[in-house]
Amino acid sequence: MRLKFLFTGPRDLYATPALDKLLFATKFIRGETVLVHWSSNNDITKKDHTEYHFTHKKNYINLIKWQWFLYKKMVKHKPNVVVNMSILSFFPIVFYRLTNKIKIIYDCRDYLAESYNFNIFFSIIIKLFENIATYFSSLIIVPDSHGYKYFNLCKQNKIHVIHNTVRDTNARKKHNKGNIKLAYLGYFSQDRNLNQIFKFIERNPKIELHIACNYIPEKLRRIIPNLHNIIYHGRLEHKDAQKLLSKMDYCLLMYNPSLGNYQYIQPTKFYDCLSIGLPYICSKGMVNLEKHVNNKTENISWEYGMSMNDLPLKNTNFSVYSRNIYNEKYDYEKILYEYKDVMETVCKET
Fold it and tell me: Region 312-328: what's the mean pLDDT?
């Protein structure tokens, strides 16, 4: 018997590669499929799934309305399995679970309590709530081993590490002879060393900064057109993003390591770098990335918030070391089938 699945999270479900992995991992046991998330687009009904969009602006009042919106969709479709990707969706899911026999799977991509500069009291409350909410989950997917520590109140056999690795599109790092090229892909956030990055680019006109994202803050919109060495590529499909990275010398992965989440994080772009063989620049204190800064690579670690003027940059080469790490530990196809086995094992008892 195929199961009814509902996938949800109060943000764009397509913002990360997680949904693609989930859809593959459940395709042999999944029947009716419903997606519920925040989006400005119209609802979609396709042959293989129904997609509902909560179109309101993101604020605290609408977050409350979101709970009711999600609950109504569960009542309407009566799923056997609800896959949740955000702590902010737990209230209606747990409430529905109290009166209906369902499996809850929590795919945790970020450790919220450690992702922002919350005060210690607020951070403890968030972490406690997340641990209590996941009590009702049959499976907790985490991106790295730090998840065992974060979900310290949960049964450890519920937790399974699925690295948020990326598909290999056969893009490979090429050696450049011209200007040194740096890549910044993804969200613009002040906790990713933006101040020092832009100061460095302003002072070094022969260093190119290539940006790919779907939104740039207004302040940066005024700066970028005035600097000829900043090239903005807009939002790119993953295959095109990897093509861009293959032409770079380094990818910037300079997160603030004083935030617990960033200390242990292995962002999606880290896996892109491994797959492509592209060196990266990370912040000192990003322990899982720093361990690959050695004499076998051209990767660099640098003090977060410190001037980047003395960075030992050069035109880099394809990294055999990084590619081997991808093949051995993070191969996309291997992890997909590992994910599939875990999901099928948990769901077969439904």
Answer: 97
288 alpha carbon, distance to own chain's centre: 16
Q: Look up the pTM and report it.
A: 0.84
Tokens 């949960």 correspond to 154
Whether the CB-CB separation of 94 and 133 falls below 8 Å is answered with yes
Tell me the pLDDT tens digit for each residue of 135-155: 889 999 998 888 898 998 888
For residue range 247-258, list pLDDT tens digits in order. Answer: 999 999 999 998
CA-to-CA distance for 278 and 275, rounded, in angstroms? 8
| CA-wise closest residue to 197 among 71, 84, 311 | 311
Residue 277 neighbours by CB under 8 Å, 6+ apart: 172, 173, 318, 319, 320, 322, 323
How far is the C-alpha of 83 from the C-alpha of 68, rounded, in Å? 17
Using DSSP's 3-state secondary structure scheme, residue 134 falls into helix
- Alpha-carbon span 278 to 292, nearest angstrom: 12
- Write the pLDDT tens digit of every residue in 4-36: 999 998 777 777 778 888 999 999 999 999 999
pLDDT digits (tens, 9 = 90+) for 229-278: 999 898 888 899 999 999 999 999 999 998 877 888 898 999 999 999 99
Cα 72 from Cα 8, distance rounded (Å): 13
Residue 30 neighbours by CB under 8 Å, 6+ apart? 2, 3, 5, 23
Beta strand 280-283 pairing with 30-38: unpaired
- Cβ-based burial of 312 (10 A; exposed 0-12, middle 13-18, buried ≥19): exposed
Stretch (H or E) spanning 96: helix 90-99
The CA distance from 276 to 242, in Å, is 7
CA 109 to chain centre: 6
